[in-house]
Write a sequence for this structure.
């Protein structure tokens, strides 16, 4: 069995698939010694084989994966008694190393393990089924590539690294959720569930770091968006209230006045941005008429 797909066109630059495939190898089937111009990841589905890189030999068994780095001489071979079946993905991009590190792989760590064999095989088979050239298939395949790496990352279970403290990370993610969902009916419980925290603990973090509750932050964010719409657009107040997550215009007006001290209508009158002047005549035509007189 041998299945292979090469991706000819590419709309991505950070991280993208070059080709992939599945192969059931014969005893002692080998490749190399060879040098590749790209990153290549092989994953053993069943059987056994051996990988040689940087003067080391690695025994590869089901669930193991080995990384081939660009411009390095490598060799791999199937076991004589129990030859492996493996799948592979070749990939490139200017952020490849970042994605590999999330899976526990780098130039010093060429082997990783993942138990999600059936899932990974299904991903490759799914890519192979989308083998016709189209924008939709390119996007679809890109999504599957991320799912493949998500499986390896899940198995690696590398702790999330950041320059921020754990509290700041959760607050940042909570604010991100509010920014993306403020137009919808959301609760503090929804925010807490998104960042996987207890509701009361999330509230205490907001009070400690922002000196307001998540609900107060959501309210202020909605009203800030409302002030922008009132100043910059001609949308009716009713529509603005809906756009900012309020199904009831009266509740919106009450909340707006509580924060700004003005009703939405009064705020618009005082803070209306002056629109660009729109002429209802052709100034060039008027100028020509002036000179012809």
């Amino acid at each position: 069995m041998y299945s292979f797909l090469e991706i000819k066109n590419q709309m991505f630059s950070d991280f993208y698939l070059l080709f992939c495939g599945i192969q059931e190898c014969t005893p002692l089937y080998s490749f190399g010694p060879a040098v590749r111009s790209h990153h290549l990841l092989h994953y053993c589905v069943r059987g056994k084989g051996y990988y040689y890189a940087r003067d080391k030999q690695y025994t590869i068994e089901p669930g193991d994966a080995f990384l081939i780095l660009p411009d390095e001489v490598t060799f791999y071979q199937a076991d004589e008694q129990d030859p492996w079946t493996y799948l592979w993905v070749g990939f490139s991009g200017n952020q490849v190393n970042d994605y590999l590190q999330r899976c526990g792989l780098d130039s010093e760590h060429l082997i990783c393990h993942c138990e999600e064999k059936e899932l990974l095989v299904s991903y490759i088979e799914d890519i192979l089924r989308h083998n016709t050239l189209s924008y939709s298939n390119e996007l679809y395949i890109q999504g599957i590539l991320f799912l493949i790496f998500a499986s390896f990352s899940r198995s690696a279970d590398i702790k999330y690294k950041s320059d921020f403290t754990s509290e700041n990370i959760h607050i940042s993610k909570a604010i991100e959720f509010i920014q993306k969902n403020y137009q919808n009916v959301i609760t503090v419980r929804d925010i807490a569930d998104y960042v996987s925290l207890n509701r009361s603990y999330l509230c205490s973090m907001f009070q400690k770091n922002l000196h307001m509750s998540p609900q107060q932050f959501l309210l202020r964010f909605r009203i800030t968006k409302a002030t922008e719409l009132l100043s910059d657009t001609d949308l009716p107040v009713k529509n603005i209230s809906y756009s900012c997550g309020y199904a009831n215009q009266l509740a919106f007006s009450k909340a707006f006045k509580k924060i700004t001290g003005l009703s939405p209508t009064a705020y618009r009158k005082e803070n209306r941005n002056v629109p660009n002047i729109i002429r209802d005549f052709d100034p060039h035509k008027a100028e020509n008429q002036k000179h012809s007189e």
About this structure: Residues 274-293 have pLDDT under 50 and may be disordered. The longest strand covers residues 16-24.
